[in-house]
Amino acid sequence: MTSVVKRNIFLRRGNLSVYMNPANRGCGGGDGEDTSSKSSSASVKPLTIKPSANQDQPLSPESEIMKRAAAKKLIERYFYQVTDGCGDPECDNANCVSSGKLKHMKPNEAAAMAIQLFSQEARLCEPQRKIARTQDISAKTTPAIEVDINPSLNEEKLSEILESCKRENSYSKLIHTIGAVFSNMEILLISFVKKPNSPLEEILSKAPSNLQNLKKEDIRTMQGDLDKDEDSQEEAEKEGESSSQSQSTGPDEITLDLESLRRAYSALFAIDGKVFESALINALITLTGTVELDLKMFRNFKDEPNLVNIFLIMLELPCLSSYEYMERVLPGICRAASHLPLSVQAKLVRVLAKHCTQKLKSLLESLQQIITLKVITSPFSQEYTVYDEETVTAATRMVKIIFYASIIAGVLDSPELRTEEEKDPTEPEDDHFGEPVASSDTREPDVTPPDPMAEELQINFLDSRKPVIPFAEFYNEPLSDVIEMDKDYTHFKNRDSLNRFSFLSHPFILTPFTRSLGLYYDNRVRMYSERRVSILQSVVGNPTSPYLRLRVKRDRIIEDALVELEVVAMANPTYLKKQLVVEFEGEQGIDEGGVSKEFFQLVVEEIFNPDYGMFTHQKETETVWFNPTSFESDAQFTLIGIVLGLAIYNNVILDVHFPMVVYSKLMGKKGCFHDLKDWNPTLYAGLKELLEYEGDDMEDTFVQTFRICYQDIFGNTFNHDLKEDGDQILVNKNNRQVL
């Protein structure tokens, strides 16, 4: 029998003295000697926490945490003693399941009993050593060897390796572990995973801070609460409801313990990075190549539900923005991510939006640097274009994931604002011009299909009120400058047949000018198509003009233009898709673009003149809005819309400043209260203050009724009651939402 070690160890932590017997460390003998079956069941005095000599001072928060952690470790030993036992068949401890004197208990009951034994400082058995299977257990003199049968990595294991390396002043074990784990998909999939909440963890979460002075009534209460939680969960499962505890993982939930991973990275990179940097980089290069090859060729892991964990572990690396990792590792991550199934990419978007919001901006900056660096240093030519540079295209696809994550993590409008009834694009009807006219054009409309990622995420970029990263930060000017938009447009329109990458499918990375070139090519293709149709009609005996011709007088430019456009819109609206040619009456010249540009500038200058009375000007934001007291009919406003549409279609830039809600309306989205900020910030701030006011004197403070006042262009004041007798109803907390 091993001699009892009399030496006690006192660990000073703040104003605490932790009294520990060496046998409490979870090993056999404290001095390294072999133990017999009798000695393994010997009673061990449990760890007790004694106040130090300075008892009058309150415990610091760090001391409280350490005190509770030490108690938790001891309670865990009691828990495993009453559930698994010490492993000694001759154990005589009545509180150990190995003795046969303790009946089998439910996990909740075992957790409650463990806390009770701790509070009573009950007898604690020594656990048996783990012995390798190849070792003869009858050979008492052979030292026991612990075998690590779990190759995965977690925070605790990494901490142990770091401590061991520091003691030995050698980091070979760390380098070997990093190389083995970060280069292997199977191992990384099971690394840093969340530990399932045990009944002991659940009951400790409900326990007070002082675990030593617990009464039996307190323990029964905690156990009862835990039983109630389990009963309610079982009832929900029987009814077929999906509760958060019974559901494995939701669309934005993962099995990866991100907080533990971040703490592990902090501890790892606290040491000199040069020690393990080369091993980590080489391992990650191997890993990304393996993942890319598997997803591209073998597809063994394409249905793996936790595949997103591998990418999160790589993207969470704090050194990813450094040059060495950005140049050698990040491109491989992008190439591998580009081959992920759409559902996995969508899950990665949701997880980044929910758990990694603070990481999005740094990831975007690193990706932009990769793209810019490759664009500047690559010798692009006719044979080798930017579309052939896989690093650029893969990084752009990764930017798309960051783009949607930024939208989801930001402020979103309700999708109900997009519930306006969409008109059939093949039906050229306009209620302001009389009866609908059947179109002679039987061609199907060219409608751009929605983005598959947006459909998978069930979101629309129009819903984004305030993304985490402003849209302008996604623009990449060097990339936009080298894109050949004619080729890119061809790839975009024939993406299904050519299967080529197109930057127009990722418009968020292009500058507005480059995107306008894509719109220019699209409009030109439509014009040439209309011109071919006109030629074919001339061949069959029904000649039509290949252009949309407008003949106007300078002194009657608005009246003449609107009359001719009204005739065209009523006769055949498809003629509006033809190239515009303008002729000023009494002037000679051929319109090669300059005349049309002058025509639009003159029209806009007169239409938006305050004296014309169709629009009002907001001085604070320098924007224009529709005049509610205008004498013009709705048909006139419709024709003005046609004029502005023709200008865009014919690639003419106009100096028109509408608030953003107008463009949202054109995209089929309704306006909301927050849109008021773009047009009238003062009015928006006042109404917002009214909505957020919490005082009880709201009526006396604001003196606001349900009557509003406004002025026409001549300065006349008009009143409008939002409710019957609105001037008699004061706005208060109960009715301010109605206002």
TrEMBL record:
One of its GO terms (biological process) is protein polyubiquitination. Its EC number is 2.3.2.26. Residues 227-238, 422-432 have a biased composition (Acidic residues). It is an enzyme of class 2 (transferase). The keyword Transferase applies. Keywords: Transferase, Ubl conjugation pathway. One of its GO terms (molecular function) is ubiquitin protein ligase activity. InterPro entries: AZUL, AZUL_sf, E3A/B/C-like, HECT_dom, Hect_E3_ubiquitin_ligase. Residues 22-62, 225-252, 416-453 are annotated as: Disordered. It catalyses: S-ubiquitinyl-[E2 ubiquitin-conjugating enzyme]-L-cysteine + [acceptor protein]-L-lysine = [E2 ubiquitin-conjugating enzyme]-L-cysteine + N(6)-ubiquitinyl-[acceptor protein]-L-lysine. Gene3D superfamilies: Hect, E3 ligase catalytic domain (3.30.2160.10), Hect, E3 ligase catalytic domains (3.90.1750.10), Ubiquitin-protein ligase E3A, N-terminal zinc-binding domain (AZUL) (6.10.130.10). Residues 572-739 form the HECT domain. Residues 51-60 have a biased composition (Polar residues). This is HECT-type E3 ubiquitin transferase.
